[in-house]
Amino acid sequence: MATNEPFPGDREGRLYHTTGxxxxxxxxxxxDYLAANGTVHAVTDVSFSLRRGEILGLAGESGSGKSTLAxxxxxxxxxxxxITGGAIxxxxxxxxxxxxxxxxxxxxxxxxxAPGADAINRVPTxxxxxxxxxxxxxxxxxxxxxxxxLAIVFQSAMNALNPVMSIGAQINDVLRAHxxxxxxxxxxxxxxxxxxxxxxxxxxxxSYPHELSGGMRQRAIIAIALALSPEIxxxxxxxxxxxxxxxxxxxxxIMRLREKLNFAVIFITHDxxxxxxxxxxxxxxxxxRIVEQTxxxxxxxxxxxxxxxxxxxxxxxxxxxxxxxxxxxxxxxxLRSAPPGCAFHPRCPLAISACRExxxxxxxxxxxxxxxxxxxxxYNPIYNAEPPTQSDLAKKYEMLAERSAIR
Amino acid sequence: xxxxxxxxxxxYAQDATAPILEARHLRKLFPxxxxxxxxxxxxxxxxxxxxxxxxxxRATALVGESGSGKTTVAxxxxxxxxxxxxxxxxxxxxxxxxxxxxxxxxxRHVQLIxxxxxxxxxxxxxxxxxxxxxxxxxxxxxxxxQETEQILSLLNRVxxxxxxxxxxKFPHQLSGGQRQRVSIARxxxxxxxxxxxxxxxxxxxxxxxxxxxxxxxxxxxxxxLALLFITHDIASARYFAEDTLVMYAGQMVxxxxxxEVIQQPMHPYTRLLISAAPDPARLSPDNNSKAATPPARGxxxxxxxPPTGCRFHPRCPHAMDICxxxxPKRTELGNGRWTNCFLYGDGESPSS
Lengths: 407, 352
Description:
The structure holds two protein chains of two kinds. By secondary structure, chain A is α/β, with parallel strands linked by helices. Chain A has twelve helices and 13 strands. Helix content of chain A is 29%, strand content 20%. In chain A, strands 7-8-9-3-10-11-13-12 form an eight-stranded mixed beta sheet, with helices on both faces. Chain B is an alpha/beta fold. In chain B, helix 4 (127-137) crosses helix 5, helix 4 (127-137) packs parallel to helix 7 and helix 7 (176-189) packs parallel to helix 8 (206-223). Classes of the chains: A alpha/beta, B alpha/beta. At the A-B interface, helix 7, helix 8 and helix 12 of A face helix 1, helix 8, helix 9, helix 10 and helix 11 of B.
């Protein structure tokens, strides 16, 4: 990727410091799968924060822990998966609109706001000073949060809908369970409203999933997710099973809805080129850890972590000069026994001796730009005096490409 | 970087080489069996009037949405389906695909790589078995020793090293990328001249895709293979193939050199595909006009009762009356570029 061209999406509102107030904060989250042949550390020490109206992109290869993270946030994980540490704090709406009034939440789940020391750099303290720890909620209270505040759209549109219930009945179901005060007529009204919102004709209310195309089903699922106007919408690879044209439609729809309803989005995908068009901020995951976290702009202009660089250059461009691209050699590690030090070092073309020994932590890159967080020793003056520039990264990957071409 | 350009130029210089595999006016209908014996017979019109030519050392990409008939074309060319009408020419002569002996002879030259590496290898057999079958069947290896030697060299050619370790592995012990490499090695074992790759990387992880694509590119250059690369990702078509053909609902709508097709798309469907592809560079100020083109809505039509005329007309922003009546003839736009669209004439000389 050429580094000297200006960032195309450079317009207001796409910078790292989005204006919304703090909505969700994940601190040092750990998720393990307790398998018989060893514990799989699927998510390790993941911290990030989400603001109102922000689109946060999570990218990484399969097996990097993206989906596990999404499931952990919604607390949908089932054994053998276990959340073994960390905190997920949710900051409810400050005005009276909040559907879950604070009184209904158990007292012990409300904590004085105290963001972790490592988060101070980028997380200003919440204004209301009160937050809900999603990990400490009882099932009944959790049920009040889910869907009302936090909705998730699953990966496979084909399987997420109930095949023996019509679309209308499935929307109705949600409303009846979560809005007992609503009458049948207003529920139906709301269902029609929702379908119109995502661009489905209201006469589809009585259609069954098999009567809808893949794109329509995905729209219907988004409509169901938005039924209770949640604050956070988690999209777990929402378009992977769809064709490019339909994918584009769905994404445009999501962007339009976000403008209209102002919810925050956690968008999970392996397609980094898609995220760059869509997200405000991007976090790259590798082997269960966030290895780089920054604004979309910085990610596009100068990915710092060698893995981010490799991932970004794994997508052939539609425009610009043709050049041989290299991809990333090797395959992701087994998370039962991740390599010591930086998990990426066996595949990294720039690995230094420290990478094999010490675990890099996510910290700001020492430069004028403090918003870019990267977990890489190459940017740590203790291990490496001169951090690599973009051309260094390009050169190393090019050498790799040449070597693989010779082989 | 420069090598690639050189290779491309080199290939253009040899443009005159005769096509090794050619499809002429291929048509494939899949009849539907209705329960009513007196009812109207209907069929899925999967591929209509498709012509293409594969040349040694060149890759041709076939791009389209799912349901556009890409895979059917690959299977027709591989001899897995019998065309309803039309001809397949191998080295200029009609390929005989009638019985198993002639099919076997044909497949000595034309091999298919399937999309899903998880289901295209037999789980109860190891890598050695998968690679030894083609070697034995096509008589490339006469003894056990020769066989092992050739399997090892095949594994090395597809960058599976150490080959000695991989030879005794079973599919479940391999990652997706490794399995796809075994599939490629299996196709190469026959020493084919034509390789038909049906979405060879779409099931693989992002970081591994380029590796496999580069491997295919290298094999193409080294062994002068003619490659058909089927994909839904138009950006990788540009990276991978010299020529690109665009298919919609069973009809070929545009073709030409990849760069031209993607930089200056002519057919409204090609434009739609390109505007829908993820492209971080799209938002730059000079590209605003392109981003603003109204996206066509809707999906690929049912091919049991396809729309009349040009099958794209229900989604096409430029649809005219004539588009509903008949399918436009191929309009040559010069430089090997062609499109089937009334916007550019009707098979006559290029006009506006």
